[in-house]
Amino acid sequence: MLVGPEPWKIRLRDQMRRLRVQSREDTGAGTYTYFEKAADEVPADIPEIHFKAPLELRARHPLLSGEIFFLLWLKEGRLALLEIASGSTPLPSDDRFVFIE
Q: Cα–Cα distance between 90 and 22 in angstroms, integer?
């Protein structure tokens, strides 16, 4: 998702190392994790293609028949929200996710 030498990805990886959770919301079929904006955070110059659509990873879990989606939403050059969703099935509480390329 953020792998690569592009300057905007490097900046977001730096932000990721210092992330702090502001709040979490359980939706029943997934979760929303909102991140705090650090006072000294330097925004990334993100390509326009990522302004409206989140960065996305897909995964599978042995207890679920469908895929799980990890959507990383960006706002004003920063990591703002991680959405994890599995359709209408509640997410398992363990970490046996297998990411799909």
A: 22
Phi, psi of 93 (to 5 degrees): -90, -10
Q: Domain range spanning residue 16?
A: 7-100
Q: What is the pLDDT of residues 38-95, one digit of tens each?
A: 878 888 888 776 666 677 777 777 777 777 888 888 888 888 898 888 765 666 666 6
- When divided into structural domains, the chain yields a total of 1
What is d(CA 73, CA 46) in angstroms, rounded to the nearest whole number? 12
For tokens 């989140």, what's the residue? Answer: 54
Contact by Cβ (8 Å): 22, 93? no
Q: Identify whether 52 is part of a domain.
A: yes
From residue 92, how far is each of 5, 59, 86, 95 by CA, in Å? Answer: 34, 13, 10, 8
